[in-house]
Design brief:
single chain, 272 residues, alpha/beta, TIM Barrel, 12 helices, 8 strands
Length: 272
């Protein structure tokens, strides 16, 4: 069992959902990224999604797009992210997954990227622009290095494509809550519950919901139907508003604790 799978089993035993915040690597610099990772660890988050900045992001809203631009303008590099992560390996971080475009992986070299990611301490990959039916090579290399490859599924995904995604995903299933880009929203769509129940009937993979979640009230709305929540823009915005790395870590840490407490109020999902 992978460390990511173990996280969801532990959360289920504790009658709560797992909480995975998203952080853009290198926004505004890698020292701030490291400080925020430590703050998230201290807030007892379950997983961390670390975004690799990309000039043509996929499905990312304006907040995360702006963070990618800031990081790229500051000179962020793939090797720099790997070095930063490797320097944190003794700091008892929760499992960290790389959110990375396949274009970056391909340019780096698939086998080399996966090898370096594993060496740096990543536990999984989320590759939003890699279709499930074209992911076999990445999955095979990742398996050799004991990395999960998490697939995304949207409300508009067809039944045939859903079967392919379920067969290709390991660790958990990243369930996109809306047909659109990332970003803070006031309400989650009513049809999300039906989508999650349908996926639950088709797979034993944990279901983690992302896109639009930004408040404890939205966490409560997923009680009993999701196994995890993913929060990105609300965290990235707090980092952008902070005056320095210490302030960013403090702000993100306080918000993460609030969201983590909200997950503890939930009941376990059926089948977990």
């Amino acid at each position: 069992m992978s460390p990511i799978s173990e996280v969801f089993q532990t959360a289920a035993r504790e009658s709560r959902m797992a909480f995975m915040p998203f952080v853009t690597a290198g926004d505004p610099d890698l020292d701030t990224t490291a400080a925020v990772l430590h703050a998230l660890r201290d807030a007892r988050v379950d997983l961390i999604e670390l975004g690799f900045p990309y000039s043509d992001p996929i499905a990312d809203g304006p907040v995360i797009q702006a963070s990618y631009t800031r990081a790229l303008n500051s000179g962020i590099s793939v090797d720099g992210i790997f070095r930063m992560m490797e320097s944190q390996k003794s700091d008892a971080l929760p499992p960290v997954l790389a959110m990375v475009s396949f274009a970056i992986i391909f340019r780096h070299g698939t086998a080399l990227f996966v090898e370096h990611a594993a060496k740096a301490g990543f536990r999984g990959l989320i590759i939003p622009d890699l279709p499930a039916d074209e992911a076999r090579d990445v999955i095979d290399v990742a398996r050799k290095h004991e990395l999960d490859v998490v697939q995304l599924i949207a409300p508009t995904t067809t039944p045939e494509r859903t079967k392919q995604i379920l067969a290709a995903s390991t660790g958990f299933l990243y369930c996109i809550s809306v047909a659109g880009t990332t970003g803070v929203r006031q309400e989650l769509p009513q049809e999300l519950t039906a989508q999650l129940k349908s996926l639950r009937a088709q797979s034993k993979l944990p279901l983690a919901v992302g896109f639009g979640i930004s408040s404890p009230e939205q966490v409560s709305a997923l009680e009993g139907v999701a196994d995890g929540i993913i929060v990105g823009s609300a965290i990235v915005r707090r980092m952008a508003e902070a005056s320095n790395s210490s302030a960013a870590a403090k702000s993100v840490g306080a918000f993460a604790k609030e969201m983590r407490m909200a997950t503890a109020k939930t009941k376990p999902s059926p089948g977990t």
